[in-house]
Amino acid sequence: MHILKATDVHKKFYHNEVLKGISMQVKKGEVIAIIGPSGSGKSTFLRCLNRLERIDRGSIEIEGEYMVKNGPEGKALYSPEKDIARIRLKMGMVFQSFNLFPHKSVMENLVMAPMLVKKTDLKEARETAMKYLEKVGMGQNALSYPFELSGGMQQRVAIARALCMNPDIMCFDEPTSALDPELTGEVLQVMKDLANEHMTMVVVTHEIGFAREVADRVIFMDEGVIVEEGHAEDVIIHPRQIRTKEFLSKVLMAR
Amino acid sequence: MDYISSLMPFMLEGTVITLKLFFLTLIIVLPLGVFMALARLSKFLPLNGLTQFYIWVFRGTPLLLQLLFIYFGLGTIGIMIDRFSAALVAFVLNYTAYLAEVYRSGIQSIDQGQFEAADVLGLNRWQTMTRIILPQMIKRVLPPISNEIINLIKDTSLVYAIGISELLRVAKIAAVRDAIFVPFIVAAVFYLVMTAVIQQTFKWLENHYAYYR
Question: Which of A3, A220, B72, B113 could form an SS bridge with A228, CB 3.0 to 4.6 Å?
Answer without folding.
Answer: A220
